[in-house]
Task: inverse folding
């Protein structure tokens, strides 16, 4: 309940008392009271339980403020990231929430001791009845789940949903609709005259800014990038397929939609006649990102560019170990990997880090870019083209803001992007002075969207997939479009631009003009929402592991429109859920082959990945 107050939801306060969220909070509170009642004679146990629940709720309040979703048990991966955890725990919000909640829990324990101890059996009936009651109440896609679920109920329910069957019908209709989402289409008119094959293997530089959305380009948070976009190629309706950095990097690197299902489980291997099912008892199986980490190979962009004579490199503003980016990028074909520590050890920068708010999770962009620039100058001296992707971290929670910009917008997200914009401006000017942009295709995009949304409006929830794409070509082409493209189109677009469209696998090229509508699929792993935009003004939204679905009419555009609920069409919903589950398989053309390169070797974070054979095969994730 404290989360509602803290997130300034007093306007919905009356509705809360007749909502499912209240019953969920009461049920969890009753269970906690029962736990305190049972353990009240053991002070150490009571202290441990109170501290655990206090930290969990304090962290959840912070997560609600950033992601508008409850913490999930799978988010325990962040605990292993020492810097991220240290900075998060030092947040004033979490510190204040911790002490307030700890006080509340001890008040509960005191109340339990006085009132429950001598009549324990009578009071324990409450935590028995309320959980049963809350399970009888239905959920709705019209409100965010965090307003309907207590964090502990949501995670407890998830434990029992991971073993359910998740099938798709391998019917002709499912396959036809799936093909509409991913089919390769390079038959349209080029938006820039002569782009295909015009340059002899230009360099390719992708700057992937954490959380970048076109919303920040438009709302004044990034004045340099806004002007830069108006003078180059600007895609105002770019779609990210998922939340989480690894999903965005997978889509960019491998030209494929990332996993749509929130917590995808292990899938059986029958891809011919029977529907594909989750194996009973299997939990926490890999998504597409983890499948490549585990050695199941997909034909990704770095591998293709290696075969065309490119040097390939990946730069990150934090540790490469976080979510195993070093292993993923090596298996995807990147030859050189750089973390912020290697760059810091190799290049010294005079910029004073004290000018920025303290950040343990990575290096501020203003200190990262100059080091990358020096490395790119070295790479550029080689007598061969290169491809590089830079993943920044300054705009990742808990954010980096230059001290002179604090309070400029009254919103830490906007101030972080304003700080990042200034750093980007200096970096691009440095590239220009070094002459690197003369023969380099520069792509500025993001991994996931940190766009500001209305937490109680499902139409606004679509902004969680509102991406950004700005491109500068060597001959300074200028173009702006409201056409819709998606993250997995970038691989095909790059191959189209450098004159090798025959190597493209799926999707469209952002360098071409399309007149017809193409369906798009996207999801929000943080809030458990999944969307299928299957017609120009028709959309399906599902939540809670595809359990709650509705049909909607889209009025206006995807990111600046509104959704109106329609009569539910179960057959249509089942069809597109089947398409989504089919999408959650790695598709190739030969027999599956597992690479032995999934293990991390040694502690060295800067390495040249060994050359590998590439496989283009059809196989499920196993």
Result:
């Amino acid at each position: 309940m404290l989360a509602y107050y803290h997130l300034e939801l007093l306007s919905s306060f009356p509705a809360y008392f007749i909502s499912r969220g209240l019953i969920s909070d009461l049920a969890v509170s009753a269970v906690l009271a029962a736990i305190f009642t049972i353990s009240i004679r053991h002070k150490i146990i009571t202290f441990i339980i109170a501290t655990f629940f206090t930290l969990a709720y304090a962290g959840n309040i912070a997560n609600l403020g950033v992601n508008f979703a409850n913490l999930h048990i799978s988010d325990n991966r962040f605990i292993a990231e020492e810097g991220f955890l240290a900075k998060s725990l030092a947040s004033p919000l979490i510190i204040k929430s911790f002490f307030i909640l700890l006080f509340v829990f001890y008040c509960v324990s005191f109340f339990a001791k006085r009132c429950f101890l001598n009549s324990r059996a009578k009071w324990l009936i409450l935590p028995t009845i309320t959980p049963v009651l809350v399970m009888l109440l239905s959920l709705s896609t019209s409100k965010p789940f965090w307003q309907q679920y207590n964090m502990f109920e949501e995670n407890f329910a998830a434990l029992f949903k991971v073993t359910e069957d998740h099938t798709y019908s391998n019917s002709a209709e499912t396959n036809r609709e799936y093909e509409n989402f991913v089919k390769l289409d390079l038959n349209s008119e080029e938006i820039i005259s002569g782009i295909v094959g015009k340059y002899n293997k230009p360099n390719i530089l992708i700057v992937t800014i954490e959380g970048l959305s076109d919303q920040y380009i438009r709302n004044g948070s990034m004045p340099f990038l806004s002007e830069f976009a108006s003078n180059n190629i600007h895609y105002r309706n770019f779609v990210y397929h998922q939340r989480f950095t690894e999903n965005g990097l997978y889509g960019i690197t491998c030209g494929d939609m990332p996993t749509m299902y929130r917590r995808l489980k292990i899938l059986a291997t029958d891809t011919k006649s029977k529907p594909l099912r989750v194996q009973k008892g299997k939990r926490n199986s890999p998504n597409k990102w983890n499948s490549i980490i585990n050695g199941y190979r997909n034909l990704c962009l770095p591998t293709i560019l290696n075969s065309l004579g490119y040097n390939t490199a990946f730069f990150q503003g934090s540790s490469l170990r976080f979510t195993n980016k070093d292993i993923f990028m090596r298996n995807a074909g990147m030859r050189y990997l750089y973390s912020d520590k290697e760059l810091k050890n190799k290049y010294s920068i005079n910029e004073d880090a004290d000018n920025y708010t303290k950040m343990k999770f990575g290096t501020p962009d203003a200190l990262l870019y100059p080091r990358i620039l020096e490395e790119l100058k070295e790479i550029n001296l080689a007598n061969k083209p290169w491809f590089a992707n830079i993943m920044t971290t300054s705009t990742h929670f808990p954010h980096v803001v230059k001290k002179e910009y604090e309070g400029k917008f009254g919103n830490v997200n906007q101030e972080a992007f304003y700080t990042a914009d200034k750093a980007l401006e200096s970096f691009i000017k440095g590239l220009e002075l070094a002459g690197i942009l003369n023969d380099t295709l520069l792509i500025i995009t993001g991994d996931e969207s940190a766009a500001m949304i209305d937490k109680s409006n499902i139409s606004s929830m679509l902004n969680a997939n509102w991406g950004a794409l700005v491109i500068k070509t060597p001959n300074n082409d200028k173009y702006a479009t409201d056409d819709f493209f998606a993250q997995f189109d970038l691989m095909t677009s790059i191959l189209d631009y450098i004159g090798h469209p025959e190597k493209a696998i799926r999707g469209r090229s952002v360098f071409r003009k399309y007149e017809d509508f193409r369906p798009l699929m996207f999801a929000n792993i943080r809030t458990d929402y999944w969307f299928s935009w299957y017609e120009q003004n028709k959309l399906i939204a599902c939540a809670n592991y595809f359990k709650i679905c509705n049909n909607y009419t889209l009025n206006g555009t995807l990111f600046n429109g509104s959704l109106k609920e329609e009569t539910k069409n179960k057959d249509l919903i089942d069809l597109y859920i089947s398409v989504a589950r089919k999408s959650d398989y790695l598709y190739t053309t030969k027999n599956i082959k597992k690479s032995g390169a999934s293990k991390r070797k040694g502690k060295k974070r800067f390495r040249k990945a060994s050359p590998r054979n590439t496989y283009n095969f059809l196989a499920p994730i196993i």
Notes: The radius of gyration is 25 Å. The CA atoms of residues 410 and 416 lie 11 Å apart.
